Amino acid sequence: MALAVFLQELDELARAAVEQFAAAVDGETLESARVAFLGAKQGRLKAAQKQMGNVGPSDRPLAGKRFNEVKQSIESAYAAAQQRLTGGSVRRPPDPTFDATLPGIRPQLGKRHPLTQTMEELKDIMGRLGFTVADGPEVEDERHNFEALNIPREHPARDPLENFYLATAGVGDPDSVFLLRSQTSTVQIRVMEAKRPPIRIISMGRVYRPDTADATHYPMFHQIEGLLVDHRVTMADLKSVLRLFAQTYLGSEVHIRFRPSFFPFTEPSVEVDYQWKDNWIEFGGAGMVDPHVLQAVGYDPEEVTGFAFGLGVERLCMRRHGVTDIREFYKNDVRFLQQF
After folding, report:
1. Could you tell me if 115 and 156 are in contact, meaning their C-beta atoms sit under 8 angstroms apart?
2. Last residue of a domain, one of 67, 86, 105
3. I need a labelling partner for 102 at 20 to 30 A (CA). Which of 23, 28, 41, 202 fits?
4. Taking the complete model, does pTM exceed 0.85, yes or no?
């Protein structure tokens, strides 16, 4: 095929396409014109492209250049008609198989997880008592997870079988050891390192311990930790805060009692029980912040004192809603989760 004949056919193709796109009066006629000129299989532009093989080898660069110009002209004409008729989108002809009278499929809306609901409520309660929320990393170093909390290296709580240690070293420090935090008390250390008293914070989030999963244990669970450091803080302040917290969350008269206990980071330390519905139930651990912990963050134990407490979020949620197996929270069973 001679080059001049091919170029003439391209010009006629461009002129015809522009005229038909300009004459389109609705989406249906525009779509018919698009298929006729720009169709991927039988469109006239596609047929013209195939004719380029009949042009002599020496004339093909010029033919290809003119073909690209015509193609761009036709596509621009189609886009302009599309914008003129529909504001940018072609209205396809209605699907004859679609029945608008049939009922639709109602989307299933989810809910917040019961543990998330519980944590939001606990934040609200403690916020009304003057505590702000502090966050910290779930991957911790040994200093924040143990040493600054007065847990010596030989303490059984640091046993590799009692923690999820990570097989990685610290950046620039090959002696650093990291683990998934076993308690939210690590956040207390980070807050006290960055801020001077008075401090009144709660930390809340996931903690990890290699416990065998059963009705009351799980290798991952949630804690809420409270810390108050100021001048002349006493055990009476601790008991008052915990009593108000329990009464507000459980919605009834609750009595609190302390039982002597031991935690490396508090002295004295207590186990907290509350009486609810005529039963005494274990609440969590608490106590006055140990002077060694205050010294580890640069505080003077002679000037400030403080208390700390730690409670299990799952335990609170289970008691309030009558759940007997902690594993139910993590099965992702919609039938269970929809009850909350």
Report:
1. no
2. 86
3. 28
4. no
CA distance 310 to 286: 6
Rounded (10°) angle between helices 235-250 and 114-128:
130
pLDDT in tens, 165-207: 887 655 445 457 888 999 899 999 999 999 898 999 999 999 9
Separation CA 318–CA 113 (nearest Å):
13
The answer on 119 and 79 residing in a single domain is no
How many Cα neighbours within 13 Å face the side chain of 300?
Answer: 3
Question: b or e along 172-189 (b: 16 or more beta carbons within 10 Å of the residue's beta carbon)?
Answer: eeeeebbbbbbbbbbbbb
Residue numbers of the domain that contains 18? 3-86
Picking from 220, 137, 145, the residue whose alpha carbon sits closest to that of residue 177 is: 145
- Do residue 62 and residue 209 come from a single domain? no
* Number of structural domains in the chain: 2
Helix (H, G, I), strand (E, B) or coil at 14: helix
Q: Predicted confidence band at 21 (pLDDT cuts at 50, 70, 90)?
A: confident
In-domain check, residue 143? yes
Residues whose CB falls within 8 Å of the CB of residue 168, separated by 6 or more in sequence, listed in order:
178
Q: Which is nearest to 307 in space by CA: 205, 223, 208, 185? A: 185
